[in-house]
C-alpha cells in the first residue's frame, strides 16, 4: 500500500527576488540602472518571482533552491530580463545562475542558463576545510598570506559536485597580487579546477586588495595631460587646496594614484594605499618617462575613455552601471611587465614594463582591464573553460572598441592588443594563432587552454563580424575549415550585438556554442531575424568553427523540433524523480501499483485522507507547431462508490499567472490504463507548465496513476 506519511508540497525559496541583492556577495550584487524607473524594476523582479514559482523546470529548480537578483534589464518595449544567482541548501552554486526572460505583460518567455537538471546531491562533506586548504595551497606559487575555504556546489561540470572553494592570498613570483581559487572535492579531497581572480592583460594573474575610490572635496576641473602612450589629451580633474588632483568627479570620482613601485599584499593595506597625484597648474606629465605623472596621464585618460564609451554607446553609467568610477595605480612594482584588474577592490594596476618594454598604460589595455569589471557585473563569466576565453575575449573586444571610439591620433585604432608595449602585439584579432599560442578556430579542447589563448576564438569572431574575412587594411582574416567568406557589418553594430549578448543572455558558464546562441538572440532583438546583421553573426561564428545550434536567424529564432518529437524530459519517469517537480513520493517504482511500461510511474493520491498531490514540468510550445498535444496514460483505482466525484485529477496548463484546466478525471470512472490526449493549440509560442493536480477527500482512497507522458508539436 502507498506510504501514508503525507509529504509537504514543493516550495521554492524565491523571496530573495523581492529583496534586491539581498544576501549576495559584493561581486554579485545587483547593479541598478539609474535611468530605469523603480516601478519597472520592481515589476521585473515580481515577474521573475512568479515565473520561477510557476515554472520551476524552466530554471531547473528544485525544493532546495533559492535565488537572489544580480542584475535587471527592462527593454524599451517592456520585456524583462532578470539575472539570478542560485543557492542549493544555502550553498552558492557555481554555474547555477539563470536569466529569466519575461514578456512585457509578465508572461514567461524563456530562460538563459547552463544547468541541465535540478540539483540533487548531499551537502555533507567528508573532507574538512583544513584538509581542503592543505591540498589547495600546494598549487600556489609565490608568497602566501593566508587561505580561506567555503563549501559550494560546482555545477560547471556534467555532474554537480560538493566542493570546498579555497582561496589563497599572496604575491605571485612576477609581483602580481595573488588570489588563487582552487576547488577541492569535499567527498574525495581531490583538487580540481583552479583560477586566479586577479585578471591580467598578458598572462594569467591573481587578485589585489586596495581601497574603494576616494571622494575629495573640490570642484570639477579640466586639465591638460602629456602622456607617453596617449599623447596630448584633456583630463577630468578636481580642484583641491593648493592645486589639482587626478580625480574625475564627472566620471564617478575615477582616480589615478602612484603605487610608488610597491606591490600590495592581501593583508588589508591602509585606505590611502599609494599616493595621490597632485599638481599646482593642472598640467600633467611631459611625455617622458622621467616624469612620474606622464604614465598617470595615460591611465587617467584610459578611465575617462572607457567611461565615455560605455556611457555614450551603451547607456551604461560606469563599470557597474551604478555611477561609481574605478581607481588606477601606475608604477606598480619594479619593472613589472603586466597590467591587471581586481573586481573585489574595483581597481587596476599598471606596470612600467619589463626591461626593454614600454609601460602597460596603452589605451586598449585600459579598456580591456576595466571591461573585466563590466563582465563581472553582467554575465559574471567564469575565468576558466570556454567561459574564461569569452571573459578575456570580451575585454579584448571592448578594449578595441574603446580605442576606436577615442580615435586618438597618438594611438591609431587597430585590431591588435597591446601593440605599443613590446616588439610584437600581445594578441592579433584578425588571425589570433599568429601569436603562436592562441586559437583562431574553436574545438572541444579550447576550454582546456589558458583564457588568454582560448580568447582567440571570440576575437576571431569579432574581427570577422566587424571587418570581414580576407585581406583588409587591418589584417588578413581566414575562415576555418573552408567556411564561406564573411562580409563585416562594422564596429558599431558588432559592439551593440556583443554588449546585449553579454548583458542579457550570457551566464557564468556560457561556452562558445552558448555565445553563438546569445549573440544571435541579441542580433534578432536589435535588428530583426531577417537582417543582414543577424545573418552575418551566423556566418562569422561558422567561420570561427563554432557550429550551428538550434537558435537561428529568421522566424522565431529557434528551429522547432520535428513533428511528433516529445518535448518533455523523462516522460516515462524511468530516470526517477528528475526534471519533474512533484510532491514527495509521486514518482515511484513501488510495487503497490503497476506502471504502464518500464519500472517507474507517477502515483498521485491514494491515501484515503484529505490530501493533494502535484506533478509538473515546464515546456516551450513552438509557435510553428501544427497541432500541439499533451498525451499520457492514466489508470484510476478507487474505493469510492456511486456517481459523485469525491476525488479528482486535473490536467492543467499554467501560463504566467493563469491556470487553465484542460480535463478533470475522478473516482466515477475507474479502470486500467487508457491514453488521454488533450489539445495545446492555445499555448503556441509560450513557455508553460504542464501540471497534474490530484485531490481526494477525507475517506475512501482513490489512486491516479500516470505514465508515458508526451507533449508533441504535431
From TrEMBL:
Residue stretches making up the Peptidase M4 C-terminal domain: 379-546
Annotated signal sequence range: 1-28
Record Gene3D superfamilies: 3.10.170.10, 3.10.450.490, Galactose-binding domain-like (2.60.120.260), Neutral Protease Domain 2 (1.10.390.10)
Annotated region (Disordered), positions in chain: 244-273
Matching Pfam families: FTP (PF07504), Peptidase_M4 (PF01447), Peptidase_M4_C (PF02868)
SUPFAM superfamilies named among the record's database cross-references: Concanavalin A-like lectins/glucanases, Metalloproteases ('zincins'), catalytic domain
Keywords: Hydrolase, Metal-binding, Metalloprotease, Protease, Signal, Zinc
Location of the FTP domain: 65-111
Recorded superkingdom: Bacteria
Domain Peptidase M4 residues, every copy: 223-375
InterPro entries assigned to the protein according to its UniProt record, in alphabetical order: ConA-like_dom_sf, FTP_domain, Peptidase_M4, Peptidase_M4/M1_CTD_sf, Peptidase_M4_C_domain, Peptidase_M4_domain, Zinc_Metalloprotease_M4
Family of this protein: Belongs to the peptidase M4 family.
Annotated PANTHER family: BACILLOLYSIN
Protein name: M4 family metallopeptidase
Organism for this UniProt entry: Streptomyces fildesensis
Amino acid at each position: 500500500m502507498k506510504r501514508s506519511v503525507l509529504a509537504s508540497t514543493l516550495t521554492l525559496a524565491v523571496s530573495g527576488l523581492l529583496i534586491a541583492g539581498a544576501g549576495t556577495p559584493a561581486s554579485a550584487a545587483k547593479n541598478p540602472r539609474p535611468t530605469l524607473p523603480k516601478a519597472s524594476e520592481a515589476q521585473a523582479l515580481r515577474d521573475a518571482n512568479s515565473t520561477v514559482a510557476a515554472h520551476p523546470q524552466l530554471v531547473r529548480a528544485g525544493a532546495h533552491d533559492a535565488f537572489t537578483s544580480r542584475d535587471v534589464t527592462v527593454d524599451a518595449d517592456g520585456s524583462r530580463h532578470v539575472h539570478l544567482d542560485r543557492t542549493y541548501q544555502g550553498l552558492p552554486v557555481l554555474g547555477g545562475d539563470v536569466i529569466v526572460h519575461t514578456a512585457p505583460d509578465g508572461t514567461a518567455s524563456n530562460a538563459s542558463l547552463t544547468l541541465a537538471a535540478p540539483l540533487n546531491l548531499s551537502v555533507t562533506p567528508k573532507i574538512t576545510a583544513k584538509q581542503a586548504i592543505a591540498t589547495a595551497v600546494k598549487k600556489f606559487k609565490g608568497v602566501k598570506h593566508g587561505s580561506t575555504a567555503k563549501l559550494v556546489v560546482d555545477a560547471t561540470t556534467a555532474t554537480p559536485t560538493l566542493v570546498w572553494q579555497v582561496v589563497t592570498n599572496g604575491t605571485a613570483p612576477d609581483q602580481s597580487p595573488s588570489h588563487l581559487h582552487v576547488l577541492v572535492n569535499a567527498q574525495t579531497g581531490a583538487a580540481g579546477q583552479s583560477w586566479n581572480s586577479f585578471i591580467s592583460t598578458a598572462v594569467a594573474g591573481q587578485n589585489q586588495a586596495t581601497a574603494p575610490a576616494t571622494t575629495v572635496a573640490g570642484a570639477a576641473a579640466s586639465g591638460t595631460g602629456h602622456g607617453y602612450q596617449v599623447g596630448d589629451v584633456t583630463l577630468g580633474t578636481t580642484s583641491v587646496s593648493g592645486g589639482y588632483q587626478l580625480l574625475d568627479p564627472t566620471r564617478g570620482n575615477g582616480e589615478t594614484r602612484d603605487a610608488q613601485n610597491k606591490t600590495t599584499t592581501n593583508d588589508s593595506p591602509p585606505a590611502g594605499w599609494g599616493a595621490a597625484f597632485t599638481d599646482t597648474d593642472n598640467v600633467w606629465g611631459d611625455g617622458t618617462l622621467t616624469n612620474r605623472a606622464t604614465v598617470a596621464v595615460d591611465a587617467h585618460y584610459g578611465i575617462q575613455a572607457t567611461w565615455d564609451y560605455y556611457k555614450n554607446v551603451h547607456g551604461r553609467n560606469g563599470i557597474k552601471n551604478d555611477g561609481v568610477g574605478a581607481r588606477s595605480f601606475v608604477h606598480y612594482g619594479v619593472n613589472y611587465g603586466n597590467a591587471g584588474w581586481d573586481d573585489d577592490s574595483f581597481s587596476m594596476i599598471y606596470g612600467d614594463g619589463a626591461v626593454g618594454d614600454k609601460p602597460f598604460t596603452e589605451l586598449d589595455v585600459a579598456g580591456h582591464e576595466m571591461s573585466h569589471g563590466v563582465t563581472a557585473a553582467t554575465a559574471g563569466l567564469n575565468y576558466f573553460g570556454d567561459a574564461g576565453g569569452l571573459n578575456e575575449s570580451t575585454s579584448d573586444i571592448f578594449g578595441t572598441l574603446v580605442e576606436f571610439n577615442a580615435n586618438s591620433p597618438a594611438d591609431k585604432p587597430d585590431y591588435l592588443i597591446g601593440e605599443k608595449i613590446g616588439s610584437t602585439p600581445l594578441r592579433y584579432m584578425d588571425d589570433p594563432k599568429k601569436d603562436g599560442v592562441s586559437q583562431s578556430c574553436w574545438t572541444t579542447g579550447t576550454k582546456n587552454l589558458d583564457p588568454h589563448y582560448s580568447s582567440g576564438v571570440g576575437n576571431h569572431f569579432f574581427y570577422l563580424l566587424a571587418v570581414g574575412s580576407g585581406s583588409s587594411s587591418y589584417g588578413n582574416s581566414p575562415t576555418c575549415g573552408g567556411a564561406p567568406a564573411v562580409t563585416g557589418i562594422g564596429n558599431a553594430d558588432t559592439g551593440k550585438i556583443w554588449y546585449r549578448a553579454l548583458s542579457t543572455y550570457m551566464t557564468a558558464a556560457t561556452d562558445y556554442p552558448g555565445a553563438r546562441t546569445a549573440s544571435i538572440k541579441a542580433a534578432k532583438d536589435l535588428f530583426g531575424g531577417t537582417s543582414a546583421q543577424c545573418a552575418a553573426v551566423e556566418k562569422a561564428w561558422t567561420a570561427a568553427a563554432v557550429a550551428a545550434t538550434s537558435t537561428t536567424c529568421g522566424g522565431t529564432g529557434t528551429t522547432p523540433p520535428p513533428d511528433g518529437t516529445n518535448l518533455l524530459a523523462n516522460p516515462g519517469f524511468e530516470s526517477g524523480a528528475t526534471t519533474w517537480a512533484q510532491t514527495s513520493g509521486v514518482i515511484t517504482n513501488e510495487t503497490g501499483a503497476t506502471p504502464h511500461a518500464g519500472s517507474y510511474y507517477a502515483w498521485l493520491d491514494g491515501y484515503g485522507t484529505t490530501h493533494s498531490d502535484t506533478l509538473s514540468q515546464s515546456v516551450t510550445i513552438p509557435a510553428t507547431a501544427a497541432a500541439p498535444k499533451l498525451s499520457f496514460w492514466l489508470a484510476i483505482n478507487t474505493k469510492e462508490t456511486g456517481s459523485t466525484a469525491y476525488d479528482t485529477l486535473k490536467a492543467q496548463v499554467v501560463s504566467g499567472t493563469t491556470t487553465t484546466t484542460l480535463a478533470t478525471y475522478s473516482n466515477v470512472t475507474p479502470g486500467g490504463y487508457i491514453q488521454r490526449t488533450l489539445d495545446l493549440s492555445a499555448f503556441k509560442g509560450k513557455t508553460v507548465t504542464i501540471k497534474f493536480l490530484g485531490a481526494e477527500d477525507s475517506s475512501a482512497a482513490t489512486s491516479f496513476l500516470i505514465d508515458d507522458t508526451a507533449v508533441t508539436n504535431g
